[in-house]
Amino acid sequence: VQVVEFGGELVQPGGSLTLSCAASGNIFRIDAMGWYRQAPGKQRDVIATITEGTTIYADSVKGRFTISRDNAKNTMYLQMNSLKPEDTAVYYCHVAGQTFQLNRFDAWGQGTQVTVSS
Q: Are 31 and 104 in contact, with CB atoms under 8 Å apart?
């Protein structure tokens, strides 16, 4: 299973940005997808997750970020509004599910850099 993130770039404070995550390969079913981020010198933290019917957000992004997914395309999005300098980090996509052989998988993308600065 391969996971790729797209969309990271430099954006001004108060701006908006949308990240995309595409999963491909031996995928029978995706059970959960999530966005994580890691700032320099800090641990990787979960910021938003989405399952079939539930979304969960970290307090730091609640009300500003929106996670969504397109099941037909095995793709997930993160709409980020009202961006702050403290949102600067490498953003990672995580995908968990089952292969066609009904084996579990957990896959990570390589990360995409989001920088919020004037």
A: no
